[in-house]
Write a structure and sequence with these properties.
alpha/beta; 175 residues; 4 helices; 4-stranded mixed sheet
Length: 175
């Protein structure tokens, strides 16, 4: 197998893409809400704090042992439950082969399957809009994301394109 990394060619301008997703703000809000739920799943118990929701039993026992041994005790007898730090990274891999330039059959899909000018949408345009919405939601939440594409002509000619690296901040250039 042969893999070659290439720099992507952007045929459609970022401004055009941002304009096409601007009308999808309700969809973007739903995506953001769903992604926010991921952060709510994690809680962490923080021990040995001055003020907290409950007594840190282990810390209290250790403090009593230290006092009985004539040592100074740790003055932080409480524990609290904190929200875990959100640590989400998303890798997106897109099919960029020539078949994605095909038009979507309007009779076989649910709307919107046409562009603003009424022409049938291409698969690649739908992919780009979906990724743009997801990236905007991830950026709003402070999550890391990488976008990669692949195309080629057989296993001995696979091209991998880095559209957005994980370390790269979201920018208009990304689109």
């Amino acid at each position: 197998m042969t893999l070659r990394e290439e720099v992507p060619h952007r045929a459609k301008s970022a401004a055009d893409l941002l304009a096409s997703v601007s009308g999808l703000s309700a969809t973007e809000r739903r995506i953001t809400r769903e992604l926010e739920h991921i952060a709510d799943m994690g809680r962490v118990l923080v021990r040995r704090v001055r003020d907290g929701d409950e007594v840190d039993i282990d810390g209290t026992i250790e403090a009593l042992v230290e006092l009985r041994a004539g040592q100074s005790a740790d003055p932080r007898p409480y524990a609290r439950t904190d929200r875990a730090r959100r640590d989400v990274a998303v890798g997106i891999v897109l099919d960029l082969s020539s078949s994605t330039a095909e038009r979507i059959d309007a009779s076989a899909t649910a709307p919107p399957c046409t562009n603003r000018d009424g022409s049938a949408r291409r698969i690649i345009d739908t992919e780009r809009e979906a990724v743009a919405l997801l990236l905007r939601s991830l950026a709003r939440l402070g999550d890391s994301a990488g976008v990669y594409g692949f195309s080629g002509s057989g296993r001995h000619d696979v091209r991998v394109l880095t559209v957005k690296d994980f370390r790269e901040p979201l920018s208009i250039r990304t689109f």
